[in-house]
Amino acid sequence: MTKKNSDRGRVTIYEVAKAAGVSISTVSLAINRPHKVNEVTRQSVIATAVRLGYRGQTQLSAGKRIAVAAPFSTYPSYYTRLTGMLTFASTVGVDIVVHDLPSTAGADAPVLEALPVRAGIDGIIVMGAPLSRDATETASLPGPPVVLVDVPDSTGIHPDIPVVLIDDRRGGELIGRHLGSLGHRRVAFVHETQRSSDYVSAGMLRAEGMSRHVEVVGCEVPDSAALASRIEAAVSDPLVTAVVANHDHLAAEVHAVLSTLPLARPIALVGYDGSIASEILGITSVWQPFEESGRAAMRLILDLADGEHTHLESLTLTPRLVVRASSTPSA
């Protein structure tokens, strides 16, 4: 987490978490849902909050309306992030207005040109959609504050907007190191077509992380109809012994395709997101703290909406690898 020194009087949840040596979600639970935190931790957090003079957000945030925009219908993982936001919002009396966005991967111009600003909106959270320079300039004018989620700022065009990320490069490294330890040397990375190179996607970062440990061969899938032929072509390379899918929904489809192919050797399979589907199918996957990222984004936007200029540049959460039966050793 990157945080600049505060020049204001009010103590934030981030300062309480740092002083108590716990996560911001633990501070929130200790205050709002104490039965979910062990007694020793709860008392330590409360004592720290009292010592620092932390007042919480409930009174200031109550009644506010936050717009949340994301490609919900394309990537179900954003619903899980939204669950974290809803859970936190329910504790402070905040209403959420949801906007569905098109997938950035399938767009020639993936940036969001205009923010979903409406009367009565006190803050905007944008997930999975880079902002154009015009949208950023609009956001810098007097109006609702903005927080980005899952939007790495590779171009630096919106440095003043806080962003909540999950470390995709680290997730890729976890996969690459795991597969490398099993003897895999060349891996096919299955992903949707990214029509624009104007932004750095999560998949690009994951591939970069994997490439530090194994050779990564791209397997681009333009649509569902092309999936079977693309997978068959990828595994026809005798040096490819593992397939990594950019997300678990895609991994489930790859799993189905592999089960129909007359494979001459075992093919390991790894997904990404840590979803229920990967657990049911026994697919190794990278679990991401989606709900925590949603809660963190909601805290940030409410701080800003309440006039708390947190000077938080970015908050990066860490994924973890969940190993299951699908990641078999190289033959």
Automatic annotation (TrEMBL):
Pfam families: LacI, Peripla_BP_3. The keyword Magnesium does not apply. CDD domains: HTH_LacI, PBP1_LacI_sugar_binding-like. The keyword Disulfide bond does not apply. Keywords: DNA-binding, Transcription, Transcription regulation. Residues 11-55 form the HTH lacI-type domain. It comes from the Bacteria. One of its GO terms (molecular function) is DNA-binding transcription factor activity. Gene3D superfamilies: 3.40.50.2300, lambda repressor-like DNA-binding domains. InterPro entries: HTH_LacI, LacI/GalR-like_sensor, Lambda_DNA-bd_dom_sf, Peripla_BP_I. This is Transcriptional regulator. It comes from Microbacterium testaceum (strain StLB037). The lineage of its organism: Bacteria, Bacillati, Actinomycetota, Actinomycetes, Micrococcales.
